[in-house]
Every structure is written in C-alpha cells, then in structure tokens.
Amino acid sequence: MSNRTGKIAAIVLGVLALIYVIGALAFTQVYMPNTSVNGADISLQPRADLRGNFEASWKDYALTVVGKDEKTDTIKASSIDYKETMPDFQMKEYSPWAWPVYAFTKKDYKVNTAITYDDEKLEKALASMHMVADKDITDPVPEMIAYEEGKGYVITEAKEGTRLDGPKLKEAVLKSLHKQDKKLDAKKADLYLKPTPAEDLDHMKKHVASLNAIEEYKLTYTFSDREEVLAGENLINLYKSADDGSLEPDEEKIKEYVAGLGEKYDTFRGTRDFQATGGAMMRVKGGIYGWQIDQPKTREQLLTAMKDKKVQSMEPVYKRKAVSRNVNDLGNSYIEIDIARQHMWLYKEGNLVIDAPVVTGNPYAGNGTPTGTQEIWAKERNRYLTGETWKSFVKYWMPFNWTGCGIHDSNWRGSYGGRIYLGGGSHGCVNTPPSKAPTFYENAFMGMPVVIYNSNKHAI
C-alpha cells in the first residue's frame, strides 16, 4: 500500500514539475496573466510584439458610456481616429521561474504614450450622444422659492437634472479611452451639471417667512356694489425685498396701485351715459360732481394696513364724495336740465317732483351754461348776484359749479323756454320761474347732482 502511494506521489510531483518548467519556459516568451499597460490587457501576448499589439488594440476598442434614465452611448476609438503608440520603456522583470506566484498578481504598468485623435470628430461624437442631444434632457434646478398648495411658500430642494457638463464629459471620455475602460458611468464619475447653490439660504428663508405672512391676510376696498380685493400675488407685488430678504411695503408700487384705483373708480369730472327725460340716452362729460380719491392719504392708509398684515375691509380716503358709490353714482335723486329743450326737472327717489321751462345762458354772448354733471354745493336765500355791469336780487340761489353759475328765480322775466336764451339768455345761470323756484329749492339738497346736457349735441 505504501509503495503504491509513493508511486502516485512521484507521478504527481513529476507532472507538477513538468507544468512548472513548461510555464517558466512559456513566460520567457509571453507576458504572464493579469498583466496590462495603461489598462490595456497584454496577458499572454508575445513579449516581442508588445508595441505592435498595443497599438493594434485600439482598432476594435469601444467605450460604452452609461447615464441616467438608462441612456447608453458607445464611442469607438476608430470613429475619432484615436490611437496610442508606446515608446521604449523599462518594464519590471519578474522571474519566469516565479510564475506560480506572479501569474495571479495584477500587474498594470503605467506608461507615457503618444496619443492622437481627431478633436473635431470627438466633439461631434459627444454632441450626438443620446444623453447629450435627446429632447428630454433637463437642466439642473437650484433651490428656489415656490408655492405649494396646502403648504404655502416653501424652499424647494435643488435638482440635478440630466444635462451633462460638456468639458467634464470630454475629459472623462479621454481618460477612459486612455485606460481602455469598457464602461464609463457618467453618474458615478460625477459628470452631470450641478445646481447653482443658493447664495444666501438665510436670506431665502426670511423671504419665504414674509411671503407666508402676507398670504395670511387680505385687504378689501369696498365701493358699494363692487370691491377691490388685494390678496395673494397681487398683494405680494406691492412689497419689495429688504436687504435681509424679508419683504417690506414698496411705496412706489403703492403709489402706482392707488393711482390705478383712482383711474378705475374716480368719477369726478368724468363721463356718464345718462337716460334723459323723454327716452334718449345722453353722453355727458365733465362737471364737478363725482367721487375723487385722495391719493396721498389713501397711500398712507394702505401703507399702514400692509404693515399691520391684518384682514380688513376699508374705503379709500376721499377728497370728494358723491351721492352714491354704485356704478351709477347719481342715485335716483337729481336735477336734470336740457339746454336744447330749455327745460328743467327735479327727481327724488326716481319720482318726478317738479319740472319747469327755464332760460339758460346766452351762447352768442359767450355766456352759455356749462354742460356736465354738476352738483348743488350751496343753498342761499335773499341775496344779490352781481357782475361787472349788473346786480340782481334773488330769493332762491343754488350754485352748481365753480364759475358762478347756479339755479335761481328771476322775477324780471315774463316768459321761459323756447329760444329766448339764444338772444336774451342769462350770464350762465339757469333762470327759473318765480312760481316754481321755491319747490325746486325746498326739494334740492346739498350735493344733489345737476345733469346739464344739450340733447341736440349729446344724444348717443
């Protein structure tokens, strides 16, 4: 039994010795396994053909680039004329007799090689890659302020996107080609563009806090049958950023906003479409009647409200007020005068109280009664009206504009209406029959609208 074991051992040792000798002799002619130059595998290649084989290795070499969204691109060395040539170099020699040890040891020699490629072809190849040219490529998004339903304003997280950094991609591809890597992972190699970092995160946080504080309140300007609501983005637009990122009222924007209110809601000296007695519609322009916002005081009011940040309803501060704040600011009580028909009516709560023929100003003497929507701004009894060449006593006097025109009795006249005004009209006032004047006076009130038109000219 021992003789048989000895014979087997001798045979095994003999075979191993033979393998060892054959390996040692072989590795004097070829490179050991696990040997590479600059990443290019030269294992078992003939030592004498190293340079030729190294140069030839680029012919069929291709680099696979993988990126986000499972995008994959391949760059062939031959497509960009990429080649490397190896100069003379001293390789560390391992004794072929030690091959049982060194054959299983990784040996990568770093050698300076002469690299050539067509840069224009490389740029074209990079530009046509799916992960560069596809339409679904997204840019990185930095931290930014956004509005989220249910949360309000928040600072969103930065997002990298899927757009590659061109210069970094080119550099990484050339490095991988040089090492003859099989694959380049764009994400692991950190080749994607990074979002621009927030310059001052604390600044953004204060800005967000201010935005959310403004979101918590609204201001409502009431105009009887209408309202103007300042809330959300419209309200935020009236603020500006302070140096620390918080928001503060912007007085210039407030000024613009209040001016806009005036343009939209002021009726002072405005144009009105008026339903005249008799059925026709008149377009009446100008006059002293109407609403006028006091813009400086309203700006102060709004500035204070914006600083308080409380929900509130308010009216603008007015410089001038009218009877009604509705779209129809005349209301249902007014005096109506038609110069063409030489007639005057007084309505109260929509009901005709009194009407009368009148004599208005003489247009041929430059004293035509001014048209427009005027208002009764005074009521006086028993006074003298005077001019440069005349003086008249009246029992009832109601001025309606700021140039001395008004409604009054005229006991010096014996007739009214018709065409009297064209040759014998007043100095601009509305002469009223003495028998009718008391009723007009008693039913008129301070601020009552006086609509004066010429139905021959103003009908629409």
What topology emerges from the helices and strands here?
Blueprint: H1 2-26, E1 35-37, E2 40-41, H2 50-56, E3 62-66, E4 72-76, E5 83-85, H3 99-102, E6 107-109, E7 114-116, H4 119-127, H5 130-133, E8 144-148, E9 152-156, H6 166-179, E10 183-185, H7 201-215, E11 219-222, E12 227-230, H8 232-236, E13 239-241, E14 247-249, H9 251-265, E15 271-275, E16 281-285, E17 292-293, H10 295-308, E18 312-314, E19 318-320, E20 334-338, E21 343-348, E22 351-357, E23 372-375, E24 380-386, E25 391-399, E26 406-409, H11 420-424, E27 430-432, H12 437-443, E28 449-453
What would your notes on this structure say?
The protein has 460 residues and is α+β, with helices and mostly antiparallel strands. The protein has three domains: 31-198, no CATH class; 202-279 and 291-320, Ubiquitin-like (UB roll); 334-453, L,D-transpeptidase catalytic domain-like (Beta Barrel). It has twelve helices and 28 strands. It has a five-stranded mixed beta sheet with strand order 22-21-20-28-23, covered by helices on one side. The chain has a four-stranded mixed beta sheet with strand order 24-25-26-27. The chain has a three-stranded mixed beta sheet with strand order 2-1-6, with no helix packed on it. Helix 9 (251-265) packs across helix 10 (295-308). It starts with a helix and ends in a 7-residue tail after the last strand. The model has no long low-confidence stretch (mean pLDDT 92).
Sheet of most strands: 5 strands, mixed
Amino-to-carboxy terminus distance: 136 Å
Strand order of the largest sheet: 22-21-20-28-23
Class from secondary-structure proportions: alpha+beta
Shape: rod-shaped
Average of per-residue pLDDT values: 92
The radius of gyration over CA amounts to 49 Å
Ranges with pLDDT <50 over ≥5 residues?
Answer: none
Strand content: 25-35%
Number of strands: 28
Question: Could you say how many structural domains there are in total?
Answer: 3
